[in-house]
Design goal:
single chain; two-stranded antiparallel ribbon; about 70% helix; about 0% strand
Length: about 230
């Protein structure tokens, strides 16, 4: 492939790689105890991750630039922003007392690393098999909504266990079934999360219910679809 025609496509890899300095900025914010800013940067990384994949598939970049592995690059960035930095917030903030902060943070990075090595994580319908290590959204939700250490610890342990369970979890863009509703709920989650960040990582009234409701929907929707499919086959 001529180098000249490769240059525009390489910008897609550049977009993906921007997640690395964004992750560094999130880490610096967290190291200073500015957890709200850490999640702002993780939110930006989440948006970038939602854009680069469709672009890569639209222009078939894997075939047209085979010398660069977009999947490997994406895994590196995703592990930092979806797993490691949320675990850092879980372990380094005052959400949990010692040693539960170390235990839960350690479980997150451990199970997340194993999940990223699972070649069977992606299902034919676009969903994920097992909890897809989306700890950025989970830890944010727990930091804003959970005032109980017991609930937080049990919830983290449950999701770590579900990482290896044959239960589906949604990809808001790739799963076609109920996609319009799922995308609308995802937008609600982002708006509610932004309002909670602006309020000092606190949600009250309608914002609290919107954040909790949208989180529950995104967590359970593919499992519900999986259950409906199982019932229809009987």
């Amino acid at each position: 492939m001529p180098l000249k025609s490769a240059h525009p496509l390489f910008l897609i890899h550049v977009l993906t790689a921007l997640g690395a300095p964004i992750a560094l900025l999130a880490l610096l914010a967290g190291a200073q105890g500015d957890w709200a800013m850490l999640f702002v940067w993780l939110g930006i990384a989440l948006v970038v991750d939602g854009v680069d994949g469709p672009l890569a598939r639209r222009y078939d970049i894997a075939r047209r630039m085979p010398q660069w592995s977009g999947a490997s690059l994406d895994f590196v960035i995703d592990y930092a922003t979806y797993v490691f930095l949320p675990a850092f917030a879980l372990a380094g903030s005052d959400m949990l007392s010692t040693p539960w902060n170390w235990i839960c943070g350690g479980l997150v990075v451990f199970t997340g690393a194993l999940y990223f090595a699972d070649n069977g994580m992606k299902q034919p319908d676009g969903s994920f098999k097992g909890f897809p290590a989306g700890w950025n959204m989970v830890v944010f939700g727990l930091m804003v909504l959970s005032s109980s250490q017991v609930f937080t610890v049990l919830f983290v342990i449950a999701l770590c266990a579900l990482t290896f369970a044959p239960v589906r979890f949604v990809h808001p863009v790739r799963v076609a079934r109920w996609r319009v509703l799922t995308l609308a709920v995802t937008l609600v989650w982002f708006v509610a999360a932004g309002l909670a960040i602006a309020n000092g990582l606190s949600a009250e009234g309608i914002v609290k219910w919107l954040l909790a409701g949208s989180s529950i929907y995104l967590l359970l929707v593919s499992a519900v679809q999986q259950g409906l499919e199982a019932i229809s086959r009987r």
